[in-house]
From TrEMBL:
Top-level taxonomy: Bacteria, Pseudomonadati, Pseudomonadota, Alphaproteobacteria, Rhodobacterales
GO molecular function: branched-chain amino acid transmembrane transporter activity
Name this polypeptide is given: Amino acid/amide ABC transporter membrane protein 2, HAAT family
Membrane-crossing residue ranges in chain numbering: 36-54, 66-83, 89-107, 114-137, 162-181, 208-229, 249-274, 286-308
InterPro entries, A to Z: ABC_transp_permease, LivM-like
């Protein structure tokens, strides 16, 4: 009960801080804070999606950047066709990412361990090179969006604050959805399949079907991050789905604590804040970031979220 109340309180505090940030930015007369925070929220959505399968399903995907890229290109492709509504962009991204996750997941889940990691990476790189080959959309150079997505036909998201709050609302909605999934019977079976798939199969559950369903849900959620990040940057390129982006997502989840959805959000927030802060101090910031990650993992195997857990026995 203590852990549940602590997580609820932490979630309220974290999302309240996000809600207050634009006002803080106005008080400091620093508009750049809103831009950076929108990027943080986008990656927090992707980290949340990854933690759903990594922390609860034990599936270490090194290809989740592909779904971010699919979401981003959904904005670019539909925008070029004259379809600018955010709802349409989200639906197209979710459908395309879910289909890609269904096909690649059905193959990847036939493997385990390092083989699963490598095959998800391979599929992501295939998607990367596919979009590199799309010369109509700039190939490797990418394409600049003509405008941001519209809401009900209105260019409301052209305002950075409106885009920020829209991204925050989506993050909160997906967080609540992920919490509901993990606490449901489906989530318990998924966790059981992670711990002992043979036993779960013996009691009448098919681990493969549950893992594949979770994989598809996770990919669809990550594509939402791509839609919002494309609007934030105003630019789409295959770099969205490069392998190092997948690695960064894994780092964010590990930093925040695997199997802790709020930890994934916090991990993405802290990782990108450190990237920005250390990047202003030195060009060798990845070295210091890596040292901090090692220290956190050595001190707490549950990442940053483990440091604040009150009920450790």
């Amino acid at each position: 009960m203590m852990r549940l109340m602590t997580r609820k309180t932490a979630a309220l505090l974290l999302f309240a801080a996000f809600a207050l940030l634009p006002m803080i930015a106005s008080a400091l007369n620093d508009h750049y804070l809103v831009v950076i925070a929108t990027r943080i929220l986008g990656f927090a959505i992707a980290a949340l999606a990854l933690d759903l399968i990594l922390g609860y399903g034990g599936m270490v995907s090194f290809g989740h950047a592909a779904y971010i890229g699919i979401g981003a290109y959904s904005v670019a492709i539909l925008g070029r066709a004259g379809i600018t509504d955010l709802g349409a962009h989200l639906l197209a991204a979710i459908a395309a990412a879910a289909l890609f996750a269904l096909v690649t997941g059905a193959i990847s889940l036939r493997t385990r361990g390092i083989y699963f990691i490598m095959i998800t990476l391979a599929f992501a790189q295939m998607a990367f090179f596919f979009f590199v080959s799309l010369s109509a959309y700039g190939g490797d150079d990418g394409v600049t969006l003509r405008a941001r997505s519209t809401l009900m036909g209105q260019p409301l998201l052209e305002d950075d604050r409106a885009l920020y709050f829209a991204t925050l609302a989506i993050l909160i909605g997906l967080y609540l959805l992920a919490v509901a999934i993990t606490r449901s019977r489906f989530g318990r079976v998924l966790t059981g399949a992670r711990e002992n798939p043979v036993r779960m199969q013996a009691v009448g559950f098919s681990p493969f079907r549950y893992q594949l369903t979770a994989f598809v849900i996770s990919g669809a959620m990550a594509s939402v991050a791509g839609v919002m990040l494309a609007n934030q940057t105003g630019f789409v390129s295959p770099a969205f789905m490069n392998w190092h982006v997948s690695g960064e997502l894994v780092v964010m989840v590990v930093l925040g604590g695997t199997g802790n959805l709020l930890g994934a959000v916090a991990g993405a927030t802290i990782a990108l804040m450190l990237e920005e802060g250390l990047g202003m101090l030195t060009e060798h910031w990845p070295l210091f970031f890596g040292l901090m990650l090692v220290i956190v993992v050595l001190v707490s195997r549950d990442g940053i979220s483990g440091l604040f857990r009150r009920d450790r026995g």
